[in-house]
Q: What sequence folds into this?
C-alpha cells in the first residue's frame, strides 16, 4: 500500500525566492487498486511523480510503502527502497542499442542477480506482457505500444509494490492505449500492486482507475471513486471525467434535466417511467453513456417541453426514486450551446422535489 501524507515540495528560484509546488498532498492507494492523478499543466503532477519515485525528496511529509517511510532515507537505504517502486515512463525510455531482453534484464543485472535466474525472470516478465517473441529485437523494431509493454516488464523486474505510470499511454494509438490499460488492470489484480496513473487522458481514467485525484495548484482539489464523481454530476470533476458536448437549442424545450449515472445501480426502466410521469414531451438532447461492466456510467441531457413546476417536480421525483442525480435548468432560453447552467435556475433534486 502507498500512503502519501501531508507532502510538501518547495524549490528555490534563482532569485532566492521560494516556491511551493506541492502544498500538502494526502493520498492513499491500497494494494490492488489504481488511483489516477490528473490536473492542468503546472498543477504539480510531474513533481509528485518524481517524489513518489524518490528521484526527488519531498521538503516535508511522508511517503510510506507498506508502512515504511521512504522519504526520510538516504544513501544505500534509499537506493534499496527505490526497488519497491517501478516506474513506467512516457516514452518507455528503453536503451536503443541493446535488445528487449537486455533492457528488461538491466535492473536485475545492476542488482547482481545470477545469470540463469536472470534469464528465467526476463522470460517470465516478457511472457507476462506477451512479448516473449520479441526478446531479441531492438527497441527501434517495436511499435510504440510494444515498447511501452517492454517498459512495464522492466518496471516489474524487481517485484515492486508500487507501479508508477507517468503518462505511459500519451501519444499511443487507441488500440495500444487499451492494451496498456488492460495490462495494468491485470497486474493490479494478479500481483496486488498499488498503481498510480499520472495522466491527462480522461478515457484512461475511466477505463482503468478505481479512484481519481484532481491536482490543482499543488493541492488535491477533488478525490474520490471515478463512478461516484461522475454520478454526483455537479462537480467540476464530473465535467472533466465525462464531458457532455453542448446541445443546441431545441424548439419547445422549456426545462433541461442533466442526469448523471454513476456508482448507484439503476433500473433501466427509469427513462420510460420519466416519459410516463410528465404529460409534456420528453426528448434526449445529448449525453455520453459508457458501459462499465455491471452498469452504465454517463451523463445525459434531457429536455422537457414544459416548465410547469408540478410537471418538473414529477419528473425529478421519478429520477430521484431511481437513484439518479439530476440538475434542473429551466427558463425560456434552454438549452443554449455552451452556456453553463444558470445558478439561479439550477436546483438540485432535493430542492425541487421538496
Ligand atoms: N525544479 C524546479 N524549480 C522551480 N520550479 C519548479 C521546478 N520544477 C517544477 N517547478 C514548477 O512547479 C510547478 C508544477 O510543475 P510540474 O511539472 O510538476 O507540473 P505538471 O502538472 O506536471 O505540468 P505538465 O502537465 O505541464 O507536465 C510549475 O509551476 C513548475 O514551473
A:
Amino acid at each position: 500500500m502507498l500512503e502519501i501524507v501531508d507532502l510538501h515540495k518547495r524549490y528555490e528560484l534563482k532569485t532566492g525566492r521560494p516556491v511551493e509546488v506541492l502544498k500538502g498532498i494526502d493520498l492513499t492507494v491500497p494494494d490492488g487498486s489504481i488511483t489516477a492523478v490528473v490536473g492542468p499543466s503546472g498543477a504539480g503532477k510531474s513533481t509528485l511523480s518524481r517524489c513518489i519515485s524518490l528521484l526527488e525528496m519531498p521538503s516535508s511529509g511522508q511517503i510510506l510503502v507498506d508502512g515504511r517511510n521512504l522519504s526520510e532515507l538516504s544513501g544505500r537505504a534509499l537506493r534499496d527502497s527505490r526497488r519497491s517502486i517501478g516506474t513506467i515512463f512516457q516514452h518507455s525510455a528503453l536503451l536503443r542499442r541493446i535488445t528487449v531482453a537486455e533492457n528488461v534484464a538491466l535492473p536485475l543485472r545492476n542488482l547482481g542477480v545470477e545469470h540463469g535466474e536472470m534469464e528465467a525472470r526476463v522470460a517470465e516478465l516478457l511472457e507476462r506482457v506477451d512479448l516473449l517473441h520479441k526478446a531479441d529485437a531492438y527497441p527501434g523494431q517495436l511499435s510504440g505500444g510494444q515498447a511501452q509493454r517492454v517498459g512495464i516488464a522492466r518496471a516489474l523486474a524487481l517485484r515492486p509494490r508500487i507501479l508508477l505510470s507517468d503518462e505511459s499511454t500519451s501519444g499511443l494509438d487507441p488500440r495500444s492505449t487499451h492494451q496498456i490499460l488492460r495490462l495494468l488492470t491485470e497486474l493490479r489484480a494478479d500481483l496486488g500492486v498499488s498503481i498510480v496513473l499520472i495522466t491527462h487522458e480522461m478515457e484512461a481514467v475511466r477505463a482503468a482507475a478505481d479512484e481519481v485525484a484532481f491536482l490543482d495548484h499543488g493541492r488535491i482539489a477533488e478525490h474520490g471513486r471515478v463512478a461516484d464523481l461522475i454520478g454526483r454530476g455537479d462537480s467540476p470533476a464530473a465535467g472533466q471525467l465525462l464531458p457532455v458536448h453542448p446541445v443546441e437549442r431545441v424548439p419547445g424545450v422549456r426545462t433541461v434535466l442533466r442526469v448523471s449515472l454513476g456508482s448507484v445501480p439503476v433500473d433501466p426502466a427509469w427513462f420510460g417511467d420519466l416519459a410516463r410521469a410528465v404529460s409534456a414531451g420528453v426528448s434526449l438532447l445529448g449525453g455520453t453513456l459508457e458501459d462499465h461492466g455491471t452498469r452504465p456510467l454517463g451523463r445525459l441531457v434531457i429536455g422537457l417541453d414544459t416548465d410547469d413546476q408540478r410537471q418538473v417536480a414529477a419528473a425529478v421525483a421519478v429520477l430521484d426514486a431511481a437513484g439518479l442525480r439530476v440538475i434542473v435548468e429551466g427558463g425560456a432560453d434552454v438549452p443554449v450551446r455552451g452556456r453553463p447552467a444558470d445558478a439561479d435556475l439550477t436546483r438540485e433534486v432535493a430542492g425541487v422535489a421538496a
Remarks:
- The longest strand covers residues 18-29.
- Residues 245-353 form a domain with the Alpha-Beta Plaits fold (CATH 3.30.70.260).
- Confidence is low (pLDDT under 50) at residues 335-354.
- The chain has two domains: 2-232, 245-353.
